[in-house]
Amino acid sequence: MKILLIEDNRKLAEYAALGLGKAGFVVDAVSTAGDGWEALAVGSYDAVVLDLGLPDRDGMDLLEEMRRKGVACAVLILTARDGVENRVNGLTAGADDYLVKPFAMAELVARLRALERRQGKGLEMTLCYGNVSFDPRTREARVGAIVLTLSRRERDALEYLIRRGGRVITRTALEEALYPMGEELASNAVDVLIHRLRKRLQDAGAAVVIVTMRGVGYMLSVKPS
């Protein structure tokens, strides 16, 4: 799940991004409404975590514009405004959830997972492709009965591929899904990641293979019998 965090408090943004990253989310963090709108214009996000007290524009105005212009991703307001009227206004303006600061990281993670379930991402179901399975709840990957030892990014890549099994995924789409905006990457970072994941699947006897579509991207495919 890819998150856009719009929060102007640097320490809080770093804390939230770190905690969400450890929970398996990919997080792009910006500090102004303007930067948030630009990120939404060029990126694809599953959810936005939105502060209301932004330096250049009230977050509520940004939320209303998002909904008015058809931005459909889930929005969780994260703010110090704790009045009932504030919550009602936020939800009425188009927010899907509202969490008051200070907050517990575990609750923020749980609320985002709940939003993911509402979007039909299937967190309650184990994903399967061939003899490879992935449990989004526990982040455990298996080939048959063999539990795979994967890095966080390898798990993220495998989940992304399984959800799109049999379809070609461009390198750009995979890179945007797996890495935060602005992170410095080697030109072959995605290729190296896929190479490692492909080898782990092969060594475990997977009945699927990650096919490289030269000049385009990758596809998770079931091996011919």
TrEMBL record:
Residues 2-116 form the Response regulatory domain. It comes from the Bacteria. Gene3D superfamilies: 3.40.50.2300, 6.10.250.690, Winged helix-like DNA-binding domain superfamily/Winged helix DNA-binding domain (1.10.10.10). The modification 4-aspartylphosphate is found at D51. GO terms for biological process: regulation of DNA-templated transcription. The keyword Phosphoprotein applies. Residues 124-222 bind DNA. GO terms for molecular function: phosphorelay response regulator activity; transcription cis-regulatory region binding. Keywords: DNA-binding, Phosphoprotein. GO terms for cellular component: cytosol; protein-DNA complex. Transmembrane segments: none annotated. Residues 124-222 form the OmpR/PhoB-type domain. PANTHER family: REGULATOR OF RPOS (PTHR48111), TRANSCRIPTIONAL REGULATORY PROTEIN CUTR (PTHR48111:SF36). This is DNA-binding response regulator, OmpR family, contains REC and winged-helix (WHTH) domain.
